[in-house]
Amino acid sequence: MPWIYLTVAGFFEIVWAFSMKQSDGFTRPVPTIITVAAMIASFALLSLSMKSLPLGTAYTIWTGIGAVGAFVVGIAWLGETASAMRIVAALLIVSGLVLMKISAPA
Q1: How far separated are the first and last CA of the chain, in Å rounded?
Q2: What are the Cα distances from residue 82, in Å, to 4, 34, 57, 60?
Q3: Rounded distance, CA 17 to CA 57, Å?
Q4: pTM above the 0.70 mark?
Q5: Phi-psi bin for 28: left (phi > 0), alpha (psi -120 to 50), beta?
Q6: Backbone angles phi, psi at 25, to 5 degrees
Q7: pLDDT tens for the 106 residues of the chain, in order
Q8: Residue 64 main-chain phi, psi, to 5 deg
Q9: What angle do CA 83, 38, 8 make, to 5 degrees?
């Protein structure tokens, strides 16, 4: 169950990063409310996952999901650049996440 909490927490991190961008510096109410709600959900689920998972593993995977997810959202929905170097960097983050998962205690 902690891995499910952590995965969903990472998803909410992507949501709050995207909605924060859409909030235009917290000047637009709906994206601002979504940002705050997603942040609370993300932190709460991260906290639940940390009851069983090591801090370093949980935090690294949470931030990695958010970083790579925000990168993909930026390219897919915001028209950000998908250069070869940026894609390689994202793949390196994903490989680090896989190694963290493999090395984590059950």
Answers
A1: 11
A2: 29, 27, 28, 23
A3: 21
A4: yes
A5: beta
A6: 70, 35
A7: 999 999 999 999 999 999 999 999 999 999 999 999 999 999 999 999 999 999 988 999 999 999 999 999 999 999 999 999 999 999 999 999 899 888 877 6
A8: -65, -45
A9: 75
